[in-house]
UniProtKB/TrEMBL annotation:
It comes from the Archaea. The chain crosses the membrane at residues 17-38, 58-79, 91-113, 125-144, 156-176. Keywords: Membrane, Transmembrane, Transmembrane helix. This is Putative membrane protein, a component ofa putative membrane remodelling system.
Amino acid sequence: MFPLSPRRSLANNAKPLVLSIGTTTLGAITGVALVLTGTAKGGPETASIQQTTQQLQLGHLLVTNTSVLTVLALGGLLIGIPTLIVLFQNGLVIGLLAGTAAGTGELGTFFALTLPHAVFELPAFWMAGCVGLKVPVGLGAYLLKRRDTPLCQRDIVQMAVLLIVAFSLVVIAAAVESQITAQIARLRAQGAVLSI
């Protein structure tokens, strides 16, 4: 049987993992560039604090983020295209928000609202993206005669390990976001200044 090590699973899937992280990064860079060039304009927040805190409830966050993880992981069944789109889109949103925050002097607020849960959520998305991209990467290697099969039993076990870790991280991220991020959002809505 294969060792169930998350570290080894990540190391053995470096190519799809780098592609996953790179796609999100490209989306973020694009988002910032769109704001800086004036192509995308950020405006004042239109959502009320009540709407924001409703979106930051644990149940809502778990449903939303597990849905994203599922699309990322199952995107491999469609040659990874949905996986790449979702990874890029997540990066794009981060970049648009960061660019807008930088332009309005709210970078401290952006980091305060993002970092506490993003340290768990982004790696979870990248791992699920890695799983979704493993199928097309393995298929490509097989078609180029670099592998005997597109996926082997070891690949499937490692993909399962990565998904278990990813879902665990999403639960942690949702808990942090529903408690810490919601509290920061309430403080910010009351006029507290958050600066870096």
